[in-house]
Amino acid sequence: MFPKVLTTNNPSFVPMALSSSSSSLASTLPHDFNPQKLSFLSTLQTCKSIQGLKQIHASSIKTMPSPDTQLTISTRLSALCAQSLPIDPRYALPLLAQLRTPNLPLYNAIIRGLATSNNDSIEGLVVYKQMLSKGIVPDNYTIPFVLKACAESRAVREGEEVHGQAIKMGLASDVYVSNTLMRMYAVCDVIRSARKVFDSSPQRDLVSWTTMIQGYVKMGFAREGVGLFFEMCGENLQADGMTLVIVLSACARLGDLRLGRKLHRYVIRNSNVNLDVFVGNALVDMYLKCGDANFARKVFQEMPIKNVVSWNSMISGLAQKGEFKESLYMFRKMQRLGVKPDDVTLVAVLNSCANLGVLELGKWVHAYLDRNQIRADGFIGNALVDMYAKCGSIDQACWVFQAMNRKDVYSYTAMIVGLAMHGQGGKALDLFSEMPKMGIEPDEVTFVGVLTACSHVGLVEEGRKYFEDMSTIYNLRPQLEHYGCMVDLLGRAGLINEAEEFIRNMPIEPDAFVLGALLGACKIHGKVELGESVMKKIEKIEPRKDGAYVLMSNIYSSANRWRDSLKLRKAMKERNLEKTPGCSSIELDGVIHEFQKGDKSHPKTKEIYKLLDGSRAI
DNA sequence: TTAGGGTTAG
Prior knowledge:
Elements: H1 16-19, H2 22-26, H3 40-46, H4 50-63, H5 67-83, H6 89-98, H7 104-116, H8 121-133, H9 142-152, H10 156-168, H11 175-187, H12 191-200, H13 206-218, H14 222-234, H15 241-254, H16 257-269, H17 277-289, H18 293-302, H19 308-320, H20 324-336, H21 343-356, H22 359-371, H23 378-390, H24 394-403, H25 409-421, H26 425-434, H27 444-457, H28 460-472, H29 480-492, H30 496-504, H31 512-525, H32 528-541, H33 546-558, H34 562-574, E1 583-588, E2 591-596, H35 605-611
Antiparallel strand pairs: 1-2
The structure holds one DNA strand.
PPR repeats: 103-138, 205-239, 307-341, 408-442
GO biological process, one term: RNA modification
Pfam families: E_motif, Eplus_motif, PPR, PPR_2
């Protein structure tokens, strides 16, 4: 049942001190230390540091090899180890092998040390198993440590076994045990079991409620988490900052501003909640996700202490709201104040750069990564690929993508969509065919890229097949975007009737984008009457869709129906439907300047022209 | 010697 990763006689666990020469350690021994004297044991008793004891231990192995003396030393050492938590299991484990009598505190200390280590948590279970095999009975300290090890290593089956043992030993009613049980189940995504433990706990404290609430929120049941919070309030239990951070994050997920304001009032009124940097960050994040960027700014400005997460919440929150310029402005401010950005900051900044087309700042982030020896991998690598692709540097995007060690579905998708947008459909499809070999499953967005690639290259049959494969092979339900891509694919290829038929057979109502794709096909192939009927449908669904009016007016003018074209433009004006102007932005001296098509009003226009060498129109 | 916290891409 328990994985055999570690054994106490594993040579890798021989303590450093034991393999070192005793002469090099002699200088740090107590000055009156003489292992040959009878006072040796009393020296040992008065030695308070593990380091000193380790040295005595190492020295005594050579000078006093008597088993009894060794045992005395080991016992004393183990007691000290158990007192200084967490301990290095690599040193403490061999001691266990030397002890004649079982030592529960030392086992507890070792299991805790392993459970809290990043890579060795599963070994905590192995040591626990060894402990049981030696007939040592765990106590109310052991079980939480073992359960923590289970949670960290996602070992739910082992956790269930420990649960059973805790019940048998009468430890399951201990509030620490039940709380760690809940956490173990919640971390392992077994929310029902967590709830069962919660419901059956004879004693529930704030940690019990908070753990259960967090379990719900992490599993995506934010509403249930919030519900439990109010249930807790109903039992007259006062929440603290930790609880509020979790409930605020649930509220952010729900995007419920009313609830968010209610929670903010709770924070202000409740003396139990300390408005520290954690609660402040959670409030900023909540306000942004609930759509009140101004209040988020206010909370942010009033925070007496901010950390990098506070800045990240603002920068990424604004970017998620589509306020990319504001997001970059925040980043500039953060830099001016000398706050060091982290991965999260840079991902958000790259995202804003990608959406604004600000290549220069994007390049700066890339150079920053190089300067700080941060590998462009994972989240950062994906954001960099996306930024380069969206800013028109598809070759740079490919270069970053190729250099990445850890590629996932997001990396492939960013690259496929980028290539498709740049008219390199063939390369995009080649990359898609590479995904199964790399063991990476495509998702819905990958297929948007794949279908766009087919559409741009005119691969009708391939496009049809990929569309079919979505549901038959990959178990993905096509969304409106995919239907839009298919209509575009068929329409561009001149298969207008089939495109119409395709729309008629859609299992979901077509939106303005799907119909817009058909309208685009009418423009390419000069289908005026069909265009008119499609336009009528679009007007019904989205009466203010300016792009469709412009397209229809162009269909008229292409067919030399100038009067109709002008009539439509006039109707647009009457309805106050101005065509959304083309827009570009440029960074100059660290400031993002946005220009609309034909706009020469910006005071920096002349400078920009000079910068662009007059070769590109703004 | 024991349990619960925020920000991350198409």
